[in-house]
């Protein structure tokens, strides 16, 4: 493609995926590209990739459908960025990435793209999916039960994935009763430790067991904590608004006053 044709593509509002790929190629051009973009590598861009994924999730959680298109575009750009750097290094191209995920989806859905029956429950499909993934891990020489659980996942999400993997081979409490007993035990151990290192360790153990309780109850710990964060934010903002109506800020108030305003916000939510 000549320079004039590439310029036309870059400025074509309906250029689609080829346009985005060409824009990224141009940004990374060592002679004419953007100095900041040229300096980046996989490690420096990875945090932005994680951030954009969370912004997509945030837009969905808020049902901000007018924002979702832009957030998905930002996330797509991250894939384009990584594949452009990979292509420069001779590793793989965007087409390779698209073909790889296409191959995976076809292989993991033999009941749609193959000759297996679609007459199965969602639970059976999950079991079949896990069997297929286990075969894939075996092909990658991942022998351990916990192999392949990404270390870069948020800690709560990784904890539940590790626990799910262990549960598949029978390493799991039979019911929530045992998990609740363990929570009490871990809380008592946290209460009794005296050193900073031990406190850090016991606090981590308690969080890990709390994740296990969520798993046994069919709850997503990450989503539950996000909801708790949102609730705390709403109620604290109600405190700020109530104080602002009196020309004050939280720092000008007492804990007792703020507790009363918190309870009022809580009651208002329940009555809404």
UniProtKB/TrEMBL annotation:
Catalytic activity: ATP + H2O = AMP + diphosphate + H(+)
Gene Ontology BP, a term: TTP catabolic process
An example molecular function term from Gene Ontology annotations: ATP diphosphatase activity
Entries under Pfam families matching the protein: MazG, PRA-PH
CDD domains: NTP-PPase_MazG_Cterm, NTP-PPase_MazG_Nterm
InterPro entries on file: MazG-like_dom, NTP-PPase_MazG-like_C, NTP-PPase_MazG-like_N, NTP_PyrPHydrolase_MazG, PRib-ATP_PPHydrolase-like
First-tier enzyme category under EC: hydrolase
Name of the molecule in the record: Nucleoside triphosphate pyrophosphohydrolase
NTP pyrophosphohydrolase MazG-like domain span: 40-113
Enzyme nomenclature, EC number: 3.6.1.8
NCBIfam families hit by this protein: mazG, PRK09562.1
Family: Belongs to the nucleoside triphosphate pyrophosphohydrolase family.
Species the sequence originates in: Marivita hallyeonensis
Domain of life: Bacteria
